[in-house]
Amino acid sequence: MPFINMKTTATLDIAKKDALSKELCIITRDCLGKGENWVMTGFEGNASLCFLGSTKDIAYVEVKCYGYPTKPQMNLMTRKVCTLLENELGIPKKRIYVAYFPTEDWGWNDSNF
Predict the structure, then answer these.
(1) How far does Cα 94 stand from its chain's mean position?
(2) Number of Cβ within a 10 Å radius of residue 55
(3) What is the spatial distance between Cα 6 and Cα 24, in angstroms, rounded to a whole number?
(4) CB-based contacts of 12, cutoff 8 Å, min separation 6
(5) What digits encode the pLDDT tens for the residues 12-70?
(6) Does the pTM exceed 0.85?
């Protein structure tokens, strides 16, 4: 049940969003053990972001998930997400933030888990 939401200053067309979504689903499966069929992704390209006084090449990624991943799982996921965004969007790893929001309160299909 993870929701991976990304804001970036990069331009994202539909093909790029689809490719990133596919890779984020694989990363989530490999790092958090959450099945690819349960991952939702969201993207905001051309976002108004500023980091260290510059608006160039930035990404902010939120990982909202049901349950509480371990520090090693989050470390691995951060590493893989940063590598993905550097390779696919040209954003340097040092200009990417990844934030985690675990919860025990998650609803789906008319009820909560």
Answers:
(1) 16
(2) 11
(3) 11
(4) 20, 43, 45, 46
(5) 999 999 999 999 999 999 999 988 889 999 999 999 999 999 999 999 999 999 999 99
(6) yes
Tell me the CATH architecture of domain 3-112. Answer: 2-Layer Sandwich (3.30)
For 53-99, the DSSP string reads: TB-SS-EEEEEEEEB---HHHHHHHHHHHHHHHHHHH---GGGEEEE
Give the tens place of pLDDT for each residue, 61-96.
Answer: 999 999 999 999 999 999 999 999 999 999 999 999
Host H or E run for residue 5: strand 3-8
